[in-house]
Every structure is written in structure tokens, then in C-alpha cells.
Amino acid sequence: MGDTQAPTPAPTPVNMTMAPTEEPPVTIVGRADDTVVLGIVFGLLGSICINTGNNIQSLGMHKLARAEKKRKQEKTEEDPEDYEAPPPSSSLIWCIGTLVFVSGSLLNFASYAFAPQSMLASLESVQFVTNILFGKFLLKANVTKKMYVGTVITVLGTIIAVLFSSSTVKELDIDALFNCWLAPPYIMYLIIMGGALVVIPSFYKTLEVAEANGKPVPHTHIIKPLMYSTWSALFGTQSVVQAKVLAELLAIQSKGEVSVFKHWFFWCTLIMWLFTVGVWLHR
């Protein structure tokens, strides 16, 4: 009798309708040192250009204000009563400052594609250094010793943050990015932020009314700047977050595996970024 061959077991069927995992896969990668350095360079140049543009805009506004003051002093009866002061865009200096500012914003946006946000956010404090320089030499502003001390502390904090920041980043797909939006801590943060954005302007207006009525609230001169900066920072923070998400989406688009322009999440992120940036600039 010949050997009897054992029957081959039937292959296990593959369940093609398997439910997806709760969280989309996230790839943890270490960026090459030169790539991170490129992001740092873009971030530094962007922050410097943003602050430079702001100061050049201020210089243009100051020159317009001086010209307007001189015009009022030399006003004659022949001048029209409905005369309106020229808009900022009529100043070439202001326009140049705006161009520099926009260029810096684009560089900052590009930097998010090359380096971690935790590292880039701290680098933006370089604006305090350029503020000192431009304020003193360009705008002829009075720079106090406290400003110098504060700037030195800020620079030291920036150096520490950069040295201890991780160069490891997460490469997320669209679903993973959207799940970050749905994370309970982020939703709670948005709720608190929304409440603060409503309460702060109302309280700020109350302080102004009290001042106008001659009954200012104690320490108003300290409270108002803190409230103003906090309100602006809330929008500024969100603009950075949405810029990072937008950079990640464009990085996904560059791989050619999926078109993010066909996904509603891309356009929602773009609108939120433009809105937060617009409010922050208008502040």
C-alpha cells in the first residue's frame, strides 16, 4: 500500500468586515537632526520677522500720527470740515511692515512641518529680545532695567525648553487628528476657553465704565493689561494649534496617499486657523 497523504487543512477565512480599532494607528518617528534644525531656523526667522514687521508697522503709524498732529496745528479755515485721517495703508512704511509680518507668519507656519510644536512654541519668545532692540533704537522707546531682566529670564527659559524638548514626533493620519479634537481634555479646554472669551471682555468693559465714572476698581492698571494679554493669548494659542494641524494635513497631502482637500476636516481647520489668526492680529 502507498503512503496516504494527509488532507490539507482549509485556510482560515479572513474577516474583511472586521471593525476598525478604536484609535487609528499612530507612528512615532524621530526626525533627522537636520530636519529639526531646519524647523528651528524657520521658527526663529519667522518670529523675528513677525516682531520686526510689527515694529515697522508701529513706526509707520507713529509717522502718520505726527503728520496728522502737525496738520491739525497748521489747520486753516480753508481745510474741509469732513477731513478724514489717512488710513495706515497709505503709509509705505506700514505696508512694508505688513509684508515682513506676513512673511514671518508663513515661515512660522512652515516650521511646524519640520520640528515639534513644544520646541517651536518656546522659540517664539525671541520676540521679546527683538522688541527690546527695535523699541530702543527704532521707536526710541524707554527701556527699563526690569525689561532687560525679564528678557534675560525669558531667554534662559527658552534655552532650557529647547535643550530638553524631544525631537520625537507623531505622524498622524486624518482620523487620528480628528480623534485628538474629540479628546475629553481638549473639549473641556475649549469649553473653559469659550467661557473666558465671553467673561473677560465683559469684565474689561466694566472696568472701563468704572474708570469713566471716576470710580475705578482697585489695581485696575494691573488687571486690565493682564486681561487683555490673556484674551489675546487664548486666540494666539489656538492659532498655533490649528497651524500645527494644518501643517500635518498638508504633510499627508504631500505623500499623495490621500487628498485632504476632499475632507471636511481640512476646511474646518483652515477656517478656524484663519479666524483665530485674524482675531489675534486685530487685537
User: Roughly how much helix do the residues carry, as a percent range?
Assistant: 55-70%
Structural class determined from secondary elements = mainly alpha
Low-confidence parts, pLDDT < 50 over ≥5 residues?
1-6, 8-30
How would you write the strand order of the largest sheet?
1-2
Biggest β-sheet strands, sense, barrel: 2 strands, antiparallel
Radius of gyration, in angstroms, nearest whole number: 27 Å
Q: How many helix segments?
A: 9
Shape: globular
**Percent of residues in beta strands:** under 5%
- Tell how many strands the DSSP assignment holds: 2
- Whole-number mean pLDDT: 78
CA(first)-CA(last) distance: 95 Å
Number of domains: 2
Reading the helices and strands in chain order gives EHHHHHEHHHH
